[in-house]
Amino acid sequence: MDLERLRYPVGKFERQMIYSPEYVTDCIEKIKTCPQRLEALISGWPSEKFEYTYRPGGWNGREIIHHMLDSHLNALIRLKLALTEEAPIIKPYLQDEWVKLSDYQLDPLMVIPILHGIHTKLALLFTSMDESDYSRELRHPEHPGIHLDLLWLLGLYSWHSDHHLGHLSIIDSQ
After folding, report:
1. Can you tell me the distance from the alpha carbon of 172 to that of 164, in angstroms, rounded to the nearest whole number?
2. CB 95 within 8 A of CB 50
3. Residues 6 or more apart from 109 whose CB is under 8 A from it?
4. CB 75 within 8 A of CB 93
5. In this predicted structure, what is the pLDDT of residue 145?
6. Are 54 and 41 within 8 A, CB to CB?
7. pLDDT tens-digit map of 105-126
8. Number of helices and strands (H, E) in the chain?
9. What is the CA radius of gyration of the chain?
């Protein structure tokens, strides 16, 4: 498998610019089911499997799972900020530095119940939004001048779920 396919097993994120109920429903379903799909994928893995990487220089399974928790927790906070404030500035974080922190050494299975809670909240909030809510703006300091809205956020984290499940599927096949 070539490096690009290993890096982006489900392809690169493609932003949807126009609200579509079908797109929203599909994205919410992916977010809602992510923890179950993750659990099914890694159930039965021996502990050493979590140390495998999906590509040379890539994160290992344990790091990917902890990253998913951190990233999706940020998604929940960003969503709530955008629903309660006018065009909030969202805080970026250095994911490659976070992966070096000691909590990434914890058992990755402890992440699963927390992800269930986060994804239940994300799915409920996205489901309860109306079409106009999806155009609520948020600002990202790393993307100045680019219009970001909750449709972007929904699509990004739906893709992000599949993206890292794709990485874990590569590890699973090893």
Report:
1. 12
2. no
3. 42
4. no
5. 87
6. no
7. 999 999 999 999 999 999 999 9
8. 6, 2
9. 16
Helix (H/G/I), strand (E/B), else coil: 149? strand
| One-letter identity of residue 97 | E
11: its two tokens: 């392809």
Q: Is the four-CA dihedral 149, 151, 156, 161 of positive or negative sign?
A: positive
Query: Which backbone phi and psi does 8 adopt, to 5 degrees?
Result: -125, 75
Q: Which amino acid is at 33?
A: T
- pTM reported for the whole predicted model: 0.96
Q: Which residue from 67, 65, 31 is spatially nearest to 168, judged by alpha carbons?
A: 65
* 139's tokens: 């600002």
Q: How far apart are the first and last CA of the chain?
A: 12
